[in-house]
Write the structure tokens for this entry.
Amino acid sequence: MVVVHSKASSHSSSLWRFWLLTIAFIASMVSADAKESEPVPTAKLVQSAAYKTILFDLYTKDYFSALVKFDVASSRDQLAMTPREKDQFRAGLLMSYGVHDEARKLLRGVVGGPSSVPAMKSMGWYYAAKAAYRARDLEGTWVAANEIKDGLPPDLAAEVVYWKVEYLIAIGRYDDATRVFAKMLKGTEWHAYAMFNLGVAQLRTGQLKEGLSNLVAVGRPVDNSSNMLALADKANLTVGYYYLRERKAAPSIEALTRVRLIGPFSNKALLGLGWAHSFERRYAEALVPWTELRKRNSTDVTVQESMLATPYAYAQVSAPAQAVKFYEEALGRYIAVQTLIENSTEATDQGVFFAPLFEAPPFDDVTLSRRLQEQGADGHIGLVSELFGQEDFQSLFRSYRDVWRLKSNLDEWIVRLDILLSGSKRVDPSQKSGGDRRASLVTHGRQLKDKYNKAVTSRDTLVFAEPKEVTRYGRLALLQQRLDHLGAEPQSEQFAQRLRIQKGLLQWDLNATFDPRARKTGTQLGDALAKLASPSAKNGTVTTTTSAVLSSVESLERYGVMKSRAAALSDRCAVLLRGYQKLIQEDALAELNTKRRFATAYLAQARYGAAQIYDEANSKPVPKK
Amino acid sequence: MRSRRILLSAFLSLSLAPIVSQAEHNIDGGAARSLDAQVQALKKEIVDLNKEMTLLEEEVMVPDATQVNIFLSLDIGDFFTLESVKLKLDDKVVASHLYTPLESAALVKGAVQRLHMGSYSPGKHDLVAVFTGKGPRGVDYSRAANYTFQKGKAPAYLDLKVTDVVKKLQPDFKVSQW
């Protein structure tokens, strides 16, 4: 598969366009309704508020909360949408949150049936194509993209053509890709990205004229946005290195001088420029970019190579003393890089390097990127900066962060459920006790009696604890978890000691009050069950007190089930987090290994180059006096 | 001449560098995909669980009979940029929020924020909302809105709305009960 450039950064913006259209469509339906009914009934206002609070999370990009609110509102029948609109909206939320597989399942239903609004149907197919593309299913993308008829705004339509071109390139149908590309709307970013991908594919398959023409065009951007300038740098670098391999200095220099002196491609461009000049034996000109490059961070492989190329150029212009000086300087810097690599490898291997990010990953992508940069403040960053800049690596870290947040959410819920358990004892369920619920209440009452007996037998102190005690117990358990996760930090032991004392004191109180509390609860339960068996209850009248006690049983059961589910899911999160940590560390170690190989090779070459100059100097005959 | 050969080999290693690096950088695709599938399944399950837990929590802690909901919305927002809001109910601070630019923009776009949901007994209650932000011409602006409402047996819904009064070139702060 020839996927050269993945326009990942643009996914969110095009998805956003889709959202605006969907929201505008739903808003038009809602306002149409509103005109017909005046004044607006409370139920409608509640529906509108439920929908707009979901929009609040959506606009602030908190997709998880938006999804939960959507599902809660949906189960309360608070959303004024047709089932199809609901599915489409939910699919959008799922996709924004990265649950592509489920989104695709929903969208199949949305786009499969008849739709009264063609534009919505097109958007449904667009969405299905996007979900497939995000799942890296190019064939599925192609199938869905071909179902889109019209009604999409130009930007989204251009994106659809981009997917088609990418699919055709992937299956080797370059001529078809060129034909589809020719019909693409010019001037969009999608057009530029498709042109770049097509150009690289053509270059690789020997269609040199077409490939170079496309790449040269991308290298001269009309739009000066940062995305387009970065793509232009990439295109110019590709063209420059193509000519460099062909030993054609002039066109190589022309392309490489177009690459900006800042940015991720500048180092490679400077190195290539030096080589292009040296092919023409213009060593003095070659020294200009190489001298600039060798001043940069020596953990970069291109900088390391310039440290070797600079003395080589001096030797060619008959300046052996300068050459030796730069070889020796290079030797020192290579050794320093090797030391750094070893230290970084050890820190990564032992989990120290990534520990701060694993323990508290930043929530937004910009901060994540900055934290990764800061992480390397002691020199590590240069060694892994290329890796950190890769979309795949950042995506791994984003997934790690998502799971970390899910685990935090579950751990917090476990504490809240404990509070809920205690809160359920205070509920006034008079609003819910309509109708004859006696039979179910009797069943629940028996279950409660069983639970009570078990709690007494096993001396489960928490069952009879006060709300504040349950909350405190949950918080202490959370702190213990975090402490276990921290491992052997210097202050951990001191903190663990304080935690043990707190837990001990709480347990002491719970043990001391267990018997009287159990007796009191037993009496209340016995009274409630007796009242249920009374003639008035049999006639359908259940007193508030009895109902309150038994209603709490319902909550208690649901609480128990949910707490078990939350705990099980939290454990699964922990397993996944370890999986991600392993992948991230392995990837960093592989990068460091590559760097080690380069540094070792360059060190040997620098030693050899310096020795050679000494040899040549020694072999010259000593002039006679 | 020998020196030239050495440098040629160095150049070749450079030429190969992107290829080698690419191979090394490739994350274990199978492992990453497997993790991704697991994460997707997990996210779905946790969303479902969160829905159920939210329903349970609201049912138990804030049943309909005692439920009070307070929403915040903005209309236009030309004369006021919201920075923070503090909510007092019966003289007790029940909610406060500092707004990020993204959140302010969300409100301007028509989104609504649920500021508070709590459990209150039927009867009369006093609400005070204090808004701070930037008023006309970017000056610091702080305004309070007071409202007394009657809580019945049904859930209560209150809407705090910041609107632009074009005639006065000033923002207005209204509270209404649905």
Residues 28-37, 425-437, 537-546 of chain A have pLDDT under 50 and may be disordered. Chain A has 26 helices and no strands. The longest helix of chain A spans residues 544-619.
